[in-house]
Amino acid sequence: MANQIFLSISVIALSFALVAFAFEPSPLQDFCVADSLSSARVNGQACKSPASVGASDFSFSGLHLPGNTSNPNGSKVTPVTVSQLPGLNTLGISMVRIDYAPWGINPPHTHPRATEILTVVEGSIQVGFVTSNPESALVTKTLQKGDVFVFPVGLVHFQRNVGNGNAVVIAALSSQNPGVITVANAVFGSNPAISADILAKAFQVDKSVVDQLQAKF
Question: How far apart are the first and last CA of the chain?
Fold first, then answer.
């Protein structure tokens, strides 16, 4: 199982590195390891001094470990972005492992700064994304072990485990900081809350329905 995961990681990383720079500037030096202690405000993160950089800045351990899926969605995302791996800073690429309980979902969400390419390591996964207005077309497919699917940057997408056993995917993203906006959380759980009157009119439901949904988030 562990060997399969790391083989998938290698294949995705190599193939995606060629297109990662399409959306983010190419680095002007060998590397720019993120300095989490810096107060400098830049588009990305400030660089550590090369003299203080070591191998640990370029490595991450833990993708072989199953994520805890004991939650309402039945899934767990383990990210490897610049926040977990400082050496990714300015390199325009990151990755995640996603674990799913039987019939667990990764709910509809979007990555505002990244295209995502996903491969199934274990299980059967239904995937899909929705195109922009006015078509709002659903593009969906059920993937089996070894299958690959791509979610275009910015589009709302989702995954669901359609098997009776656990499932695992590995995905690469074309940004060191892709961001994630979960639709339900953003709409019903914003802080401060969007007016229930606005949401009731937008979703064409009674305000009491909106109140119930906002109470969940």
Answer: 35
Q: What sections of 68-195 are H helices per DSSP?
A: 183-188
pLDDT band of 172, cuts 50, 70, 90? very high
Looking at the chain, list the stretches that DSSP marks H as alpha helix, in order from N- to C-terminal side: 2-20, 183-188, 196-203, 207-216
Instruction: Please tell me the distance from the alpha carbon of residue 202 to that of residue 180, in angstroms, as a whole number.
Output: 23
> Model confidence over 94-112: pLDDT tens digits?
999 999 999 999 999 999 9
Q: In whole angstroms, give the CA distance from residue 58 to residue 54.
A: 8
Backbone angles phi, psi at 81, to 5 degrees: -110, -170
Structure tokens at 40: 């400098």
Strands of 101-187, DSSP E: 105-110, 116-122, 125-130, 138-143, 148-151, 157-161, 167-173, 181-182
The DSSP bridge partners found for residue 149 are: 118
Question: What is d(CA 115, CA 111) in angstroms, rounded to the nearest whole number?
Answer: 7
Position 21 confidence tier, pLDDT thresholds 50, 70, 90: very low
Amino acid at 34: A
Question: What is the C-alpha separation between 147 and 119, in angstroms, rounded?
Answer: 6
Q: State pLDDT tens for residues 131-157.
A: 999 999 999 999 999 999 999 999 999
